[in-house]
Amino acid sequence: MSMAVWPSFDRLLNDHPGFRESFWERKPLSNLVQWASRVTRMKFLLILWTTIRNAFEGAVWATLVWTASESFFDVEWIYLFWGFFAILCLQGLKVLGAEPWLGRAMVTIDPMLVGLAIWQAVMCALIPTVIAIVVGNMISSWTQRVPDWLHVFLFFGCAFYIFWRRNGKRKAVQAWKGEPKPEWKTSDLFKGPSTVDHLPEWQREKLTEHRQKRQNVEVGRGAWTRAASDGSLVTELDLYWAQVVPWVDNKFGFVCYSKKSGQMAQSWYDYETEKQAMGAAVAWMRHSTSPGPVVDSKPETEKQCEDARLQTERELVETIALSASKSTKRIVDFIPEGKKKSDLTIKSYLEYLCFVVHVTHRLASKHASYEEVGKMYNTIVPQIVNYVIFEVWKTEEEKMQQVWTEAINELIQAREIQYAESKEYASKEWKPLSGTSTVDMLVRNIREVLDTYNPEELFQIQLAARESMQEAKIPELIANYRKAHPSVGH
């Protein structure tokens, strides 16, 4: 489960190569990206093994075609071999750009898969070979040909090898990637209006009508149109669409929906005018700005209370982000050197961030009801994402801001589901690979990111998280938050 969320982040980093450089300029860490000698050795072993495997499988294909066609065509085996070998080598050129962690997996696992396919092919080819030879001898008086047992065995052996080899590769890919799920490409988000075929029917109708009325106005310009069905105002950006609807007491509210899933992403009511609701909806879709009612004036006491609420929210958000940064810095020396070190550092930081968010959520649930904790969670998490993107990474490109916002939110949700299965914060016995505590799950998530089984590195990963959490004093900040938010505190 833990690796399934990372392909979208890999696409983000590849689509925006300048982001990782600017990340390092803003947050320099020790031991910057370098090409290590072990990466070069692994690349050499990967190319060597790929060449040997292609030569063997080229011989298998050549033997299969040669034994099947020798009665009809007089073709030299060596010509068939060179032809298939060249084809397989061309198909295998992509391994030259494989990442070091993938190279290690291929050099370790692929030979075992080839050996297993050979053993299965030999076992499966025996019975068909015996049957074919018996039948061939029985009809040899009519065909005037006596079957050659070696040729027959090679034919069935090569055929079964190809079958079992493809079956093994398919199962290995499924085991590596987990359950297949539809993937989305960030580049598709910026090529104009996204498809709405997968959305609920009522959403398709509103977006289709909106696009017809909007005509040539580009997505992202914030153009609003009024729906004929219920009079609501509709607009869309790259990742979300929103509608402004009338509310009780002659007030207005907005609802934002994800164009990827169709689910509601944010909503808020109690605006005095449609213009206020429209502005709040666009502000949330563009910058994840926390929505709220717009009031011109407030009593001094109420302003002070609001300042206190905002201050406690800010302190909690900053502490969570800082705790993740401290944890990442404590393990940066264990992150493999190479051109992908910056990517691995960003992923490790986000893993620690999700961990601190979940622990904060768990701590708050000990003193407040489910509804109150949910309100706190929905208030803090968008601000954390906003803080990381705008103040920690200082991302300036608007489309990157929107894409990163959705990607980080998806990761936080995935980790919340995973960590919810844990029964304790940290287990009494150190079991990084089999434990069920939240810390154990964090260690496994970062282990998969860094592709390491080194016990010392795994120990440092959990130690960094636990020390940073102790320094953060999250329970005190939660208590201050609850005091400043009466709806949560009582």
What would your notes on this structure say?
- With 490 residues, the protein is mainly alpha-helical.
- 64% of the residues lie in helices and 6% in strands.
- The protein is built from 17 helices and five strands.
- The chain has helices at residues 6-15, 17-26, 37-69, 77-91, 100-138, 140-143, 149-177, 201-214, 274-287, 300-331, 341-365, 370-392, 398-419, 438-450, 455-472, 474-484, 486-489; strands spanning 225-226, 233-236, 240-246, 252-258, 264-271.
- The protein has a five-stranded antiparallel β-sheet with strand order 1-2-3-4-5, with helices on both faces.
- A hairpin with a 6-residue loop joins β1 and β2.
- The longest helix is centred in the first third of the chain and has 39 residues, at 100-138.
- The two termini are 37 Å apart.
Key structural traits:
490 residues; mainly alpha; 17 helices; 3 domains; five-stranded antiparallel beta sheet; elongated
Question: What layout of secondary structure does this protein have?
Answer:
Blueprint: H1 6-15, H2 17-26, H3 37-69, H4 77-91, H5 100-138, H6 140-143, H7 149-177, H8 201-214, E1 225-226, E2 233-236, E3 240-246, E4 252-258, E5 264-271, H9 274-287, H10 300-331, H11 341-365, H12 370-392, H13 398-419, H14 438-450, H15 455-472, H16 474-484, H17 486-489
Antiparallel strand pairs: 1-2, 2-3, 3-4, 4-5
Helix pairs in contact: 1-2, 1-13, 3-4, 3-5, 3-7, 5-7, 10-11, 10-12, 10-15, 10-16, 11-12, 11-13, 11-14, 12-13, 14-15
